[in-house]
Amino acid sequence: MPVSDTVARDDTDAEGDRLPINELFASLQGEGKLAGVPSTFVRTSGCNLRCWFCDSFHTSWEPTHAWMTLDEIVAEVESLSPEHVVVTGGEPLVHDETDALLSALADDYHLTVETNGTLDTDAPVDLASVSPKLASSTPTPENAPADVDPGVWTARHEDARVDLDALASLVEHAAEFQLKFVVTGRDDLDEIESLVADVRGVADREVRDSDVLLMPEGQTREQLARTRTEVADLAASFGYRYTPRLHVDLWNDAPET
């Protein structure tokens, strides 16, 4: 199955223990509870969803990557200085080999997995950064990226974007977790409130308001300037945490940030 069509765990393009890597670089974590922490990012290619506002277009809508063995990835991580590693995507958990990578890194690094929350993992995870996708993320012909026809992804994304069992498993399994919502406006808050209540109802672990983070939608400084104040006000009003997007503030939409 080509990575561009990935809808579940599948890695049949690879021979052996390899992962499709879009980027591997050191920078600052830009989002969430660890914003500002120096981190090495391992960005896999391939995703089972298609958010219209995806900020890693070349891991989802038009995936690009090089196949790297787990040993090559670990060696590259070891050549960089951060003690925190962020495994991200795309959706890194669509690949079985991601579990093996996490296990290989677990003894030496703090591990964050950035995931959309539709798949779970038994591998060691220090921080599960879970970003459940709201109805406002579903691609349509009106909001899809330029020159992209969402086609079957409108229905596929909408059908797959929330999996309560996977969300509960991620919340329960990781040493720490955060539920990080991309917010496009006030209309998203009713769904966020409902989904947080649903997760609290199924997870065998407390989900505090401080574990729920609201993040403004925006891939450039100009876009964030239009949304950040409203989202910060919503976080203050509802008692949730606000998270910036430091990498956008600092480096705009440059790659490897």
UniProtKB/TrEMBL annotation:
Residues 131-150 are annotated as: Disordered. HAMAP family: QueE. This is 7-carboxy-7-deazaguanine synthase. PANTHER family: 7-CARBOXY-7-DEAZAGUANINE SYNTHASE (PTHR42836). Its EC number is 4.3.99.3. Mg(2+) binds at residue 56. SUPFAM superfamilies: Radical SAM enzymes. Residues 34-253 form the Radical SAM core domain. Belongs to the radical SAM superfamily. 7-carboxy-7-deazaguanine synthase family. It catalyses: 6-carboxy-5,6,7,8-tetrahydropterin + H(+) = 7-carboxy-7-carbaguanine + NH4(+). It comes from the Archaea. It comes from Haloferax denitrificans ATCC 35960. Binds 1 S-adenosyl-L-methionine per subunit. Binds 1 [4Fe-4S] cluster. The cluster is coordinated with 3 cysteines and an exchangeable S-adenosyl-L-methionine. Substrate binds at residues 28-30, 43, 88. Catalyzes the complex heterocyclic radical-mediated conversion of 6-carboxy-5,6,7,8-tetrahydropterin (CPH4) to 7-carboxy-7-deazaguanine (CDG), a step common to the biosynthetic pathways of all 7-deazapurine-containing compounds. GO terms for molecular function: 4 iron, 4 sulfur cluster binding; carbon-nitrogen lyase activity; magnesium ion binding; S-adenosyl-L-methionine binding. Pathway: Purine metabolism; 7-cyano-7-deazaguanine biosynthesis. It is an enzyme of class 4 (lyase). Homodimer. Keywords: 4Fe-4S, Iron, Iron-sulfur, Lyase, Magnesium, Metal-binding, S-adenosyl-L-methionine. [4Fe-4S] cluster binds at residues 47, 51, 54.
